[in-house]
Amino acid sequence: MSESRFNPAESVQNIYLIRHGQSQGNVDPSIHRSAPDHAIALSETGKRQATLAGSALRELISLPDDVALRIWSSPYERTRQTAELLAAELRRKFPHTDYREHINLCEQQFGLFDGIPDDELPIRFPLEHAHYTLAASHEGRFWARMPLGESRFDVAVRVHESFGTFHRDAERHGVSNIIVVCHGVTLRAFVMQWLHLPYEWFEAQPNPNNCDIYHIDTQSRSNGGFIYRSPIEMV
User: Is residue 235 part of a domain?
Assistant: First the structure.
């Protein structure tokens, strides 16, 4: 058997996971009636949150100024905007910061339930809602799939598929420190999968607030944790 070529120096070392800033949908859920989820932009508060988070992260990252940082983002409008504002702040200290998107980092797909208020679901989709509610009540929300959409299990599976990209970047191009801009469910799924945690951990975790930052140091044995909490609350 040939000797393993794994080299810790060529693997992912630091992952900074950030939920997008406050969106217009967070402020006014009715916007979902007129715009698809992927097109909903940041609110003005969300833009301020992203700028503040970028400034904080710039100071929190204790690496040489010439290190190569890569921002990976969900392709949704609110995550794109958050990533751009983060990049602007990070480049003030780390000029070799670039930006890419990965479709597997997008929000959970809610299918028929997308943008529909919870109290309207039994009226508009009685059979589908009854089926989902039954599955959720017996198996937990992690396993229950939205009609024509995804379960949280589905999100975890596709998030895991993105890991190969990050490992290849580190091994082939030396990009071992990454910032991932995504969504609440996606962020929790990422942590669960990367750290090999049980799905019960996922279910016990609340969604992070907008622009909270979760750090995974892959060289340590800890489960990581939040290193920054956004000071701007949703309005």
Answer: no
Tell me what pLDDT residue 221 has.
64
Kindly give, in sequence order, each residue whose CB lies less than 8 Å from that of residue 148, ignoring residues fewer than 6 positions away. 111, 112
Q: Could you give the CA distance from residue 51 to residue 84 in angstroms, rounded to a whole number?
A: 9
Task: Verify that 141 and 175 share a domain, yes or no.
Answer: no
Q: Could you read off the pLDDT of 79-119 as tens digits, one per residue? A: 999 999 999 999 999 999 999 999 999 999 999 999 888 89
Q: For residues 17 and 62, state if they share a domain.
A: yes
φ/ψ (deg, to 5) at 131: -65, -45
> What SS3 class is residue 113?
helix
Does one domain contain both 85 and 160? yes
Q: Which residues contact 105 (CB under 8 A, 6 or more apart)?
A: 72, 73, 74, 75, 79, 159, 162, 180, 181, 182, 183, 186, 190
Per-residue pLDDT tens for 152-205? 999 999 999 999 999 999 999 999 999 999 999 999 999 999 999 999 999 999
For the purposes of burial, counting CB atoms within 10 Å of the CB of 200, is it exposed (0-12), middle (13-18) or buried (19 or more)?
Answer: exposed
Count CA atoms closer than 13 A to 136's CA, side-chain side.
14
Residue 235's CB is within 10 A of a number of other CB atoms, namely: 9
Please indicate, yes or no, whether the overall pTM of this predicted structure exceeds 0.90.
yes
What pLDDT, in 10s, does the model give residues 4-41? 344 444 589 999 999 999 999 999 988 888 889 999 99
Q: Which domain holds residue 143?
A: 111-149
Q: Residue 57: which of 178, 201, 205 has the closest Cα?
A: 178
Q: Where are the beta strands (DSSP E) in the chain?
A: 14-19, 69-73, 97-101, 177-182, 213-217, 225-228
